[in-house]
Amino acid sequence: AQKITQTQPGMFVQEKEAVTLDCTYDTSDPSYGLFWYKQPSSGEMIFLIYQGSYDQQNATEGRYSLNFQKARKSANLVISASQLGDSAMYFCAMRGEFGNEKLTFGTGTRLTIIP
Amino acid sequence: DAGVTQSPTHLIKTRGQQVTLRCSPKSGHDTVSWYQQALGQGPQFIFQYYEEEERQRGNFPDRFSGHQFPNYSSELNVNALLLGDSALYLCASSFFGPGSTDTQYFGPGTRLTVL
User: Which positions in chain A touch B45 (Cβ < 8 Å)?
Assistant: First the structure.
């Protein structure tokens, strides 16, 4: 069984500052994938970034980077130079080793960017 | 390139009725997964379809059923609706193949209200 834990229900960050959203996971699978999604108030789940468990380097996508610490089972999302449009719910998710498997989601973090 | 589309956007039903939700995957994708997201929670996996067969299933009763068509589009059917079925239903598509990260891309969702 897989489990995702997001311990920050909500965060307030000043515009243009960097923000780190925490995610820890638990799995017995030898390989797995970790994902971050953004969900604005409209409801659509937007894919942000992916990290494979055997990837040697931390994933980056524009202003998003994933701080992957395998030994600690953590996969924190870092957003640099936050913008007002970053205000949304953020979900960490993982899939198991066989690929194309179901995603297990955390409870999410609501990020609010303050002008 | 069209993304994942879902219809209808909103739906209001009464207890005991039946509902059908529809999803068209992103171009080039062959796998469709369905998720239920209750208010304030992360999405919960319902089931996944690949090659017109149910490949995986989450912890949902048999009232929830689905179908995948030869063009990879999919339907989610819910019978004997309960008040607790009120939620945002998200469809996600992905490509199952070598070299793929199996990233799931989501549609805008169907918001179902059961009265």
Answer: 102-104
